């Protein structure tokens, strides 16, 4: 979600319990993207509610029961991180079959990826806005999420098992298919 044109048209307000996006230009809101998000809310995407305020569309993501990936990593062990990696990669692989869900609308900021600390399931933020999609968006998305997951451990490997570190190195080896990991 790093398109500067979109960022100028969308305002984010973050709190401990929610992320609120105000879409300042109604024409970029994607009703079909919103419906797609609603149907996949339990499948790796944070549930979102839509409202209108001062003529703007407001999208509110309830993250009250979740922890950001960035915060979760402070108190997580190797086995738990492997569960997080598995859950994130499961979502990535499922996305391969969902052409209508634009990868450019999924935030890969560690503050916008959420973890359920009980189940270690991962949840992404999907912003349903219209934008041009690149034919290689899914490849770029997979590469970026793998780099993010690998970097988290490889930059701070203390407390991680050698097996977890090896998995993270494999994440960074793009000759290995995501399914093989």
How does this model look, in words?
This protein has helices at residues 4-9, 31-39, 69-72, 78-95, 137-154, 162-172, and strands at 10-14, 18-23, 48-53, 56-62, 67-68, 113-115, 122-124. The chain has 181 residues and is an alpha+beta fold. The strands form two sheets. Strands 1-2-4-3 form a four-stranded antiparallel β-sheet. A hairpin with a 3-residue loop joins β1 (10-14) and β2 (18-23). The longest helix has 18 residues, at 78-95. It is globular and about 55 Å long.
β-strand amount:
15-25%
Q: Give the % helix.
A: 25-40%
String of helices and strands: HEEHEEEHHEEHH
Which runs of at least 5 residues are low in confidence (pLDDT < 50)?
A: none
Order of neighbouring strands in the sheet with most strands: 1-2-4-3
Shape: globular
- Class of secondary structure makeup: alpha+beta
Sheet bearing the most strands, described? 4 strands, antiparallel
Show the helix and strand layout.
Layout: H1 4-9, E1 10-14, E2 18-23, H2 31-39, E3 48-53, E4 56-62, E5 67-68, H3 69-72, H4 78-95, E6 113-115, E7 122-124, H5 137-154, H6 162-172
Antiparallel strand pairs: 1-2, 2-4, 3-4, 5-6, 6-7
Helix pairs in contact: 4-5, 5-6
